[in-house]
Amino acid sequence: MSVVEAIDLHRTYRTSTGTIRRKWIDVEAVRGVSFAIEKGELFGLLGPNGAGKTTTIKMLITLLIPTSGTAKVLGHDVVKDAREVRKRIGYVFGGERGVYERLSGYDNLRYFAELYGVPPGEQKQRIASLLELVGLTGREQERTEGYSRGMKQRLHVARGLLHDPPVVFLDEPTIGLDPVGARELRATIASLVDAGKTVLLTTHYMFEADALCDRIAVINKGEIVAHGTPAQLKQNVAEGAVVEVEIFGIPEGTVERVRELPGVNAVSVEEREQAQVLIVQTPADIELTHAILGRLDGANVGRVSRREPTLEDAYVALVSSGE
Amino acid sequence: MKALRIMAFGWYFQFKAISRSPFEGLFQIIWPLFFATVAFLMFRAGTDPKTLLYASLGAAVMGMWSATSTTAGGAMQRERWHGTLEALVASPPHFSLILLPITLAMSTIGIYCLVATLLFGRFVFGIDLTVEHKVAFGVSIVGTVLSFGALGFLFAVSFVRFRAAWALGNLFEYPVWLIGGFLVPLVLLPDWVRPISWVLAPTWGMNAIRESALGGTPWPDLALCLALGVAYVTLGVLALDRVLGAARKRATLSLT
Amino acid sequence: MTAARIFAVGGLMSYRALFYWLTPMIYIPSLVVAPIFQILLMAYIGRSAGLASDEFFLVGNAIQYAAVPCLFAMMHLVGGEKFQNTLGAILVSPAPRLPLFFGRAVPVVLNGAFVAAFSLLVGSLILGVEIPGGSIPPLALVILVAAFSCTGLGLINAALALRIRESAVLSNVLFGFLLIFTGANVPLSDLPDWMQTISQWIPFTHAIEAARELVDGASASSVLDLVGRELALGAAYLAAGYLLLRFFENQGRRHATLERS
């Protein structure tokens, strides 16, 4: 039995536009998402902002009721058996809010330790070791209103692990953290899996998913567009090539013109310091460099190179194919 | 019992968080003192032989009610603003075990108001504070706080869908002061109002406090006060499941 | 000519600024239901204390409660502009300040007068207090002047609110102050001397006295000097508030604290 099962999850939001004559429109944020996570896996849900990651994870942790479809965690239905699910999962959402500002970090943890039924005899020990794990030892007696954003984030992580849950959900946990903090947090997440927990991580950082996850599902516009191990995803683009053209001041319409070229799989633009880089994915056996340069309308061109694709390119190809 | 433990700790931490807002806290105490001053001046200038202690007790409980009515209705909204509502809903205990301690913490602040008003009456208006049955007095105050918290819980559950929940809460300040008979004997109110007074726990809490201070029998009043409190909590719990289910369907647990 | 137009347009803008925050959800409980309950509450406490008459408390509290719309609306007006960061733009505009600001105050006064008049009417029906028909026009004028006077205080309050963070508390304190010192609930003669002195210099005291006399059947001309005094007080408050605002504006320009978020 899979630890986490999502079966054709749908979630529609109803929003209104206008103030005088309100129009109600339905927005389908999640459109038929299905996946399964096995015990001890670090599963990544990867996608750009607005893809439906947070909505999906909220359904799994019982905060949102799916419009249709079902989900189960450790065999318990997230809608019918919400209480049983809540006892067995920890979740880390992060962000500036979500803590009691006038209480100390320690009190925040004590409160939730009580709510999660951590046995009184173990609370002190558990809290102390969690503070150690997230690097907040020594700061726990201060009121959280004085915590930096990163500290609050780390407090959220500690809180999510208080009751030693077998399944942990993390929603973009490294956002807003400085590089060192982010790296430490990733190491912590990896250690959770080493300890036998099952983890679902959402992120829009490609390299983070690549580095941490055993399996990844790429989600875009509410649908899963690919899933597999990082190696498998790279395979999808492995047969191709990538042409990179450095341009100083990309003219209008260039991207569209290049995309029209027969054989081109995906085109994207990356900003780098002084110039923009046009990244074109093509099949490996076709030489398109000259054709591409021909579509550049006499723009100022710098370096031109050809290379092997990376997972980043696979991701870009997947999420831009919907446009 | 695990449930009691969760509520006790919930009350403790929420009370700690609320009582640490210095300015809000101070204002909660000062606001009822204006009405207390008016009441003292009126009773002093008036012809009725009621003691000023009567006025002092009434004004003190008015303050207690203010502390609850102006805050309890917005309890869920407050948690939403802090970003903690989701975390609370996602935790295992039934949400009533989490929300009731919050409104109880709010009504506990009312004790500060009670003490401030009594002291104010003592030192500014020279109102003597002799209490006949001291133990009953203390117990009545605690019972009143509990029932106010219960009523606040019912408000909190009922006002969840209203963004201006605070405005609704304020709506119940004056009416309860009047109909609860804090400064007005119930016999002076129109007959048809009387039954409404009877189903309000504040009416009985006030009676209990007054009886214990002025030398009467507070226990029946206290019992009725607590019984009504239990009724409010029961109603609230029944409504809560529906309210939360709707919030999870309509995605209104967070601000975003 | 331009001044009058600015006055009118400013007034219209203020109306919209006033109502964007005053949804019916807030308006009805706070400005329609609450004043009626305050009247009932105080009238019954009066009966309980054996003090004065229902009419005494009806008039006193109907007028005193106008402090809520006047104080809070003025504060939202001035404070709201700060919040929307347009205060700086208005203050540097070439339009003459006086008509602009006073134009914005008109809806506040009208709204305050309406709240008082409505609660007076409903309260009189519930308590069975008779208001002589001939008194109604002068009563309306007295209520208008009362609202004007408190709006003046509201401008001072609003100017101070630019500096103080907890401005809602200040407004509530002023409300409580007016509850006690205006004779709304305690006959002035029963107040200690020092309180009586203060009462002569604050909004509402004279208007409440005039209104009570009118409801008792006095002629309009007999309350004229009370009304005059209330009017003068209101004008003085308005002027003081305006000067305070300009003072803070200048200060703000010097210390770059004009737009505090």
Mean of all residue-level pLDDT scores of chain B: 89
Largest interface: B-C, 36 and 34 residues
Q: If helices are DSSP runs of H or I spanning 4 or more residues, what is the number of helices of chain C? A: 11
| Major sheet details of chain B | none
Explained architecture:
The complex is a heterotrimer of chains A (323), B (256) and C (261). Chain A is 33% helix and 32% strand. Chain A is an alpha/beta fold. Chain A contains 11 helices and 14 strands. Chain A starts with a strand and ends with a helix. Chain A folds into 2 domains: 4-234, P-loop containing nucleotide triphosphate hydrolases (Rossmann fold), CATH 3.40.50.300; 238-320, 2-Layer Sandwich (Alpha-Beta Plaits). Chain A has a 6-stranded mixed beta sheet, with helices on both faces. Chain B is 77% helix and 0% strand. In chain B, helix 3 packs antiparallel against helix 6, helix 7 (134-158) packs antiparallel against helix 11 and helix 11 (201-214) packs antiparallel against helix 12. The radius of gyration of chain B is 18 Å and the shape is globular. Chain C has one domain. Chain C is built from 11 helices and no strands. Chain C is an all-alpha fold and 261 residues long. Chains B and C meet through helix 2, helix 8 and helix 9 of B and helix 2 and helix 8 of C.
Q: Which characteristics define this entry?
A:
A: about 325 residues, alpha/beta, Rossmann fold, Alpha-Beta Plaits, about 35% helix, globular, C: about 260 residues, mainly alpha, 11 helices, about 75% helix
Task: Break the fold down into its secondary structure elements and pairings.
The complex is a heterotrimer of chains A (323), B (256) and C (261).
Chain A: E1 4-17, E2 23-37, E3 42-46, H1 53-60, E4 68-73, E5 76-77, H2 82-88, E6 89-92, H3 105-115, H4 120-134, H5 149-160, E7 167-171, H6 179-194, E8 198-203, H7 206-212, E9 215-220, E10 223-228, H8 230-238, E11 240-248, H9 254-260, E12 266-272, E13 275-283, H10 289-294, E14 300-307, H11 311-320
Parallel strand pairs in A: 3-8, 3-9, 6-7, 7-8
Antiparallel strand pairs in A: 1-2, 1-4, 4-5, 9-10, 11-13, 11-14, 12-13
Helix pairs in contact in A: 3-4, 4-5, 8-11
Chain B: H1 2-19, H2 22-45, H3 52-72, H4 75-82, H5 85-89, H6 95-125, H7 134-158, H8 165-171, H9 173-179, H10 194-198, H11 201-214, H12 219-250
Chain C: H1 2-21, H2 24-49, H3 54-64, H4 67-83, H5 87-92, H6 97-127, H7 136-161, H8 167-181, H9 193-199, H10 205-215, H11 224-255
Helix pairs in contact in C: 1-6, 2-3, 2-6, 3-6, 3-10, 4-6, 4-7, 4-8, 6-7, 7-8, 7-10, 7-11, 10-11
